[in-house]
Design a protein that fits this description.
The chain has two domains: 4-89, Roll (Ubiquitin-like (UB roll)); 99-164, Orthogonal Bundle (DNA polymerase, domain 1), CATH 1.10.150.120. Helix content is 34%, strand content 15%. The protein contains six helices and five strands; from the N terminus they run H-E-E-H-E-E-E-H-H-H-H. The chain has helices at residues 4-10, 35-42, 99-107, 116-129, 135-141, 153-164, and strands at 14-20, 23-29, 61-64, 67-70, 83-85. Helix 3 (99-107) packs across helix 6. The radius of gyration is 17 Å and the shape is elongated. The structure holds FE2/S2 (inorganic) cluster (FES) (2 copies). The site of one FE2/S2 (inorganic) cluster has 10 residues, from loops. One FE2/S2 (inorganic) cluster binds at residues 50-53, 55-60, 70, 72.
Length: 167
């Protein structure tokens, strides 16, 4: 009798086991499946955005073991055993906004909002590692996140406000 992992391999699939926003996940996926597709298409977690799909825009950014990664470039096997955090995992539940989300809201850190989940994930990674970044460090941390709308002024102000609130 084949175990479940072997059965998945026989079916041409890869048995992925990881954690998404603190919830264990076991999923049989094609080996070439990208994390972005797992989140959006398999799990219907559409907070993570699909845009360039070549690692240029940051719209698909999530945290993997606390580090920001472009989920469009992350293969299923690279997620094995990892803790993945998406924008859905940042809020405090009961529709409460994370302090970084609140700061974006108050400082006009978005217009269309398409880049916002990825931006906020990158800011979370920055502030977890460096709670008091200077302006240059903020700009460096967000250099992989493109925004076509805001001109970045409101985004940088939002990060500065989040620093003040311990976001
Ligand atoms: S969609 Fe992943 S970097 Fe643009
Ligand atoms: S708010 Fe529209 S792309 Fe950033």
């Amino acid at each position: 009798m084949l175990n479940e992992t072997k059965q998945a391999e026989r079916a041409g699939k890869y048995r992925l086991e990881c954690e998404i926003n603190g919830t264990p996940l076991t999923l049989d996926v094609p080996p070439s499946r990208r994390l972005l597709s797992i989140l959006r298409d398999d799990l219907q977690m559409t907070g993570t955005k699909r845009s360039c799909e070549i690692g240029r825009c940051g719209a698909c950014m999530v945290l993997m073991d606390g580090k920001p990664v472009n989920s469009c470039l992350t293969m299923a096997y690279q997620c094995a055993g990892a803790q993945i955090t998406t924008i859905e995992g940042l809020s405090g539940g009961d529709d409460a906004l994370h302090p970084i989300q609140q700061a974006f809201l108050e400082e006009g850190g978005f217009q269309c909002g398409y880049c916002t989940p990825g931006m906020i994930v990158s800011v979370k990674a920055l502030l977890d590692e460096n709670p008091k970044p200077c302006q240059a460090e903020i700009e460096e941390a967000l250099s992989g996140n493109l925004c076509r709308c805001t001109g970045y002024g409101g985004i940088v102000r939002a990060v500065q406000k989040a620093i003040g609130t311990g976001g």
